[in-house]
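Side project, low priority. Logging it here so it doesn't get lost.
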Amino acid sequence: MATAPPSPMNPEISAVAPQAPPLSEGARIVDVFIAPRKTFTDLLRSGLWWAPFLLMVIVSAVFVYSAGHKVGFEKIAENQMQSQPKQQARMESMSAAERAHAMEIAGKFTAGIGYVFPLFQLLMLAILGGLFYATLKMAAGVDVKYGKVFAVLVYAGLPMTLRAVLAMITLWAGASPDSFTMQNPLGSNVGYYLNPADSPFLYSLCSQFDVFLIWTLVLTAIGFTCISKVKSGTSYAIVFGWWIVLTLGLSSLALLS
């Protein structure tokens, strides 16, 4: 007697869902912008993060070169001092020769920091990764690996790389160098349109309300949801909660400058 073919509703068969094909590193980077859940879900398969970080390094180097060529590092340093009234007052108390020498040193320091910034960025991501890892483990009670959390942060930071690309375009298109700074190079936030000398705290605070930074925070929350069993609402609360705390802390430090 012939055996009847298994019913398509057989639970043993329907439970076997086809797995999504693995993504290439290039596809991961592209999908961050158009289908972020695909990228972050693929991190469960492989937590490699070198490709987006290498892209960040390359864009950062070209950005710093463009800023130095179109604005000048001494001018950038001078612009940055506008948000540091105490340092600006010290500069004004110097003689012309002393001021010129100090600005030369400041320009070289700005260039050096700019070119090695990806190393500081990597360290910052490592620290933030530990912060979010501990919060997810202890406060949210989810089982997650530090390496996956770190990879999420690297991929989620790609919108900030896009901001650097757009800032470069504006520089080469002839944007005015009078207010250009490395920290806030594009008019994608409220702080960009404020005079930092009027209120360093308000300028620093408003600069954090940046379109690309908010985009990064949203991607981070999506990523944490994809690599763990944390609920979407909890993930957003953790990410934006720490953003508020860190933003207020960093803005308060501006009062001391």
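Brief comment: The chain has a mean pLDDT of 89.
Revisit when time allows.
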